[in-house]
Amino acid sequence: MRGTALAAVGMAGVLALAGCAKDSGKSNAASGSGDNSSGSGCVTAPKPPAAPAAATSSSTDGGKVDGSKLKVGLAFDVGGRGDASFNDAAAAGTDRAKAELGVPSVQESTASPTESEAARQQRLEQMASQGLNPIVAVGFAYEAAVKTVATKHPDIKFAIVDDDTITLPNVTPLVFAEEQGSFLAGVAAAYKSKNCHVGFVGGVNTPLIQKFEAGYLQGAKAASNKIKIEDEYLTPAGDNTGFQDPAKGNAKAAAEIAKGADVVYHAAGASGKGVFDAAKSGNALAIGVDSDQYNQKTVAADKDIILTSMVKRVDVAVLEFLRAFAKNDLGSLPKRFDLKVDGVGYSTSGGKVDDIKDVLDGYKAQIISGAITVSDKPAK
């Protein structure tokens, strides 16, 4: 898990609607009961123009590829397979590679929350020494380890998710426009908030997670100039336990809900389970991240309060990297997985955003066209 000002082209004029409900300290209307109506009186911006009838985005072209000779290594970030978020998305990519490309097997290994740089390097070195090729490192925390090990093994191809600082010829960056997908999450939150008061919970305060925060804040403010936003992180940069502490996520989200936030978006990895639990207990809604969390078994007990998820298609990026590797055509990969190539987006599972899908797709089309530029730096 892990810039530029808003160009408000075509956003002139303000729709006069009833005022926000007063913040009472409790959510009095946003629940998981399936009510799909928009937040009363919060939205102040005019509805965006309808998206073009033609598809507003395009994904990479698959085609028949033989991956039966690939020996893939997958080095997970903190949380590993089963985190219902970032790592599960990467795992879904290799699972799809097995089914679609015929990749025979994938060797997986997971980072611990407090492990040293030497441990990350040892994990990658062990994979390289076993002849695995290619090797996918999930998360920016692997940057130094990938650089070191890839330098020692120039004949092995590496991919690293969420880092594009390594310039070695055998390292492929897989990076995303998290701020673009998060903008749509912010719009959805504003449209669905009854209190005109929403929240954000970030796992670790890093530049990567700030991209989620930045897009969410910008999207919510684009939809409403009256929106109130709670904005918190679980741990500072360097303390990766923020991605694997559901209890802390619960406490932080509960505090935001107590202040009046009735829709809370998390970018906190496995800690998001605690955010979902807090939303359910506090009669609020929550927005998931990375994977379509409505369909994740590990958070199934809270699926009724999941409004949508900002889907970061790590699965697509990993699958397309393996496909391109098998074709010996890594140069065909997108430089960044954004809305235009379906690298990020939003989920519709559960039906709670069905009534505003035209709004979300309208904003999506404006971002793709360049009419709206989403910043990757939070504007408080």
UniProtKB/TrEMBL annotation:
Domain of life assignment: Bacteria
Stretches for region Disordered: 23-68, 97-120
Gene3D superfamilies in the record: 3.40.50.2300
InterPro entries: BMP_lipoprotein (IPR050957), Peripla_BP_I (IPR028082), PnrA-like (IPR003760)
Domain ABC transporter substrate-binding protein PnrA-like: 75-374
One Gene Ontology cellular component: plasma membrane
Biased composition (Polar residues): 106-115
Compositional bias (Low complexity): 23-45
Keywords: Cell membrane, Lipoprotein, Membrane, Signal
Pfam family, one: Bmp
Signal peptide range in chain numbering: 1-21
Protein's membrane topology: Lipid-anchor
Keyword Magnesium: no
Acyltransferase in keyword set: no
Family note: Belongs to the BMP lipoprotein family.
Protein name (database record): BMP family ABC transporter substrate-binding protein
